[in-house]
Structure formats: structure tokens, C-alpha cells
Design brief:
Blueprint lengths: L2 H21 L1 H11 L20 H12 L14 H30 L7 H14 L1 H17 L7 H7 L1 H17 L5 H13 L2 E2 L4 E2 L4 E2 L6 E2 L4 E2 L4 E2 L4 E3 L7 H5 L7 E2 L4 E2 L4 E3 L4 E2 L4 E2 L4 E2 L8 E2 L5 E6 L2 E6 L5
Parallel strand pairs: 1-4, 2-5, 3-6, 4-7, 5-8, 6-9, 7-10, 8-11, 9-12, 10-13, 12-14
Antiparallel strand pairs: 15-16
Helix pairs in contact: 3-4, 4-5, 6-8, 8-9
Length: about 325
């Protein structure tokens, strides 16, 4: 038997096996469809969909065009076209926002049988309120940029921070989402913050209360919980958790709305790897929390908290020497 015949037989056998497997699909599909009627699982069939005619990323991109004019614009912006370009962009953002807000309101109304909230009118009102907050939002973000620049010798300019710092991106999305959160808009703020989380590794719940000149340095792995309160001039490094204490399985209903996350007062620095937990935990103003510290109780103002330096052992050519690291916080 020549090679051509062998290969031909092999190909036919493989196609036959593939066909036999595909014939099993209808029965498998039926089982999956049957499982969709199982009330123990979640399904969203027949309910109002959440339509995002514009993706969350595109909406955030338009916000950034307006919040930082000229930095992220699709064309050159100068005195000749500023009024026209920004007018068009702001009008576009209003249309997108009002539509998205109306959709999430209608979704919850129909899915959960809520009293009519006049979705269209409320969506228009909320969108306009967010647009009207942009001048104040721009000032707040400018302070965040200045805070990042003043405390980071690696930053060569304010432009570098605006263009490239993931911390500023996460803070920008948080500050927008926080406005929507305070307007009691469901789902949309959290979807926005999770988009920023997926891009930057920085997880800021839109319900957190964060003051001016907030700086996230590096940022990967930061978690800031819903009821956290953070003052002015606070700087946080990577892998910091500002979270809740361990909760019982039924905590969702019992503690929903209660303060579960710490308060960080003004001018505090929290170094990488620190974990601060609990709704009654307060980090006093001007305190410094060192790397890898674990805190579940309050710290007075003007306090430095750090882990005592470990003893390190260096082995070389069969000999061992013990060194003590000095920690300067």
C-alpha cells in the first residue's frame, strides 16, 4: 500500500470520527437547554437586556477626551476648532450616557418588578448632572496629577502622568463612576470600575469616598472597598488592600450598607503589600504604614507602623553569615 492510499484512509477515518462526535451535539444541547430551567442556577432569559450601543471603553475614552482636552483627542485641537470639537464631543457623551443610564434603569425595573422610575427622564437628568460635574471633576483630577508628580521623582512631566500612569486612569474612572454611584444608578458604575480593574489591576469600588490629591504609585494589586473613606493627600503603593474583615456566609444581607472598610485620614502613606481591614479601623493623619504590615485596629495620628527587620542568612561556599536588615520608614 503506497503512502497516498495510507494518507487517504487516515483522512477519511479522522473525518468519520469528527462526524460521529458532532452527531452527539444535539443530545448535549438538549441537556444544556433543560438545565436552563433549573431554578438553582442563574439565567437572564426573557428579561430586558442591558444594551451597550457604545462599549464602556469607548465611553470612558470620550470622557477622557473632555477631562483632558487635547491629550486623547482624535484630531488636533486648537483655538480654531476647540468650541466646535468639544461641543460635538460633549453632546455625543450626553447622548451615550443618557441612553446607557436609561437602559440599566429599565433593566432593573423590569427584571425585579420595581415601581416605574421613568427611565428615560431619569436617564436624561442623570446624564446632564454628570456632564455638569465635569468642570469640578477636571479640577479634582488636576490635583491628582499634581500630587503624583510632586511625589514621584521618576515622573518627568505632568503629561507623562496623564498619558501613561495606570493609577491616574483608575482614579479617573473611579471619580466618574462615583458620581453615577451617588446618583443611585445601578450596575453602570461597577461595570466601569471593573473595566479599569481589568486594564490596570487596580480595584476601586465606585462607592468609596476618596479625597483630593489621591496618588496610586505603580498600582497593580490595589483593592479599595466600597465603604472605605480616604482623606486628602494620601499615597498608596502596589498590592495594598483596604478591605473588610472576614465575613460570615450570610453577611450579604446583614451588612449591606454598613461600614465594613477602613478610614484613612489625610496625608497618610501606605507602602506596598500592606493590608488594612475593618470598618472601625482608622489610620490617623500623617501616619506611615510600612510594607507588608497587617492591621485590623486603629493607628493614632503621626504614627509609623512597620515590621521589625528579619534576619537574613547568606550562604556562600559552604559558609553562612547572618545579617539584619535595617528598615527606615
Amino acid at each position: 500500500m503506497d503512502d497516498f492510499t495510507i494518507n487517504n484512509i487516515s483522512c477519511r477515518t479522522e473525518r468519520q470520527i469528527d462526524s460521529e462526535h458532532r452527531q452527539e451535539l444535539p443530545k448535549t444541547i438538549d441537556r444544556i437547554l433543560t438545565s436552563m430551567g433549573d431554578n438553582r442556577c442563574f439565567a437572564h432569559i426573557g428579561d430586558e437586556p442591558i444594551h451597550f450601543s457604545t462599549s464602556i471603553k469607548e465611553m470612558i475614552d470620550i470622557f477622557r477626551e473632555i477631562l483632558f482636552p487635547g491629550y486623547f483627542s482624535k484630531e488636533k485641537v486648537d483655538g480654531a476648532n476647540l468650541q466646535y470639537y468639544m461641543g460635538q464631543t460633549i453632546s455625543q457623551l450626553y447622548d451615550i450616557l443618557s441612553e446607557q443610564i436609561s437602559h440599566v434603569l429599565r433593566h432593573d425595573c423590569l427584571r425585579y418588578g420595581l415601581q416605574c422610575s421613568e427611565c428615560e427622564g431619569r436617564g436624561n437628568d442623570a446624564a446632564l448632572e454628570v456632564i455638569e460635574a465635569i468642570p469640578k471633576l477636571r479640577l479634582s483630577l488636576s490635583e491628582d496629577v499634581k500630587g503624583a508628580y510632586s511625589g514621584d521623582p521618576a515622573a518627568k512631566s505632568h503629561d507623562e502622568i496623564i498619558f501613561s500612569y495606570p493609577g491616574l486612569y483608575a482614579i479617573t474612572v473611579y471619580r466618574i463612576a462615583n458620581i453615577l454611584y451617588k446618583l443611585n444608578i445601578p450596575q453602570l458604575p461597577r461595570i466601569m470600575s471593573e473595566h479599569a480593574h481589568s486594564l490596570t489591576g487596580i480595584d476601586i469600588h465606585p462607592g468609596a469616598k476618596i479625597g483630593e490629591r489621591f496618588v496610586i504609585d505603580h498600582g497593580t494589586g490595589i483593592v479599595i472597598g466600597e465603604t472605605s473613606v480616604i482623606g486628602n493627600n494620601v499615597r498608596i503603593y502596589q498590592n495594598v488592600t483596604i478591605g473588610a474583615l472576614s465575613l460570615p456566609p450570610d453577611a450579604g444581607e446583614k451588612l449591606r450598607g454598613a461600614k465594613r472598610h477602613p478610614t484613612i485620614e489625610d496625608d497618610v502613606i501606605v507602602y506596598s503589600g500592606a493590608t488594612i481591614l475593618g470598618g472601625e479601623t482608622i489610620i490617623g493623619a500623617r501616619s506611615i504604614i510600612g510594607g507588608n504590615v497587617w492591621l485590623t485596629s486603629s493607628v493614632p495620628a503621626d504614627t509609623k507602623v512597620f515590621i521589625e527587620a528579619p534576619n537574613l542568612v547568606y550562604k556562600n561556599s559552604g559558609t553562612a553569615k547572618e545579617f539584619t536588615n535595617e528598615v527606615n520608614v
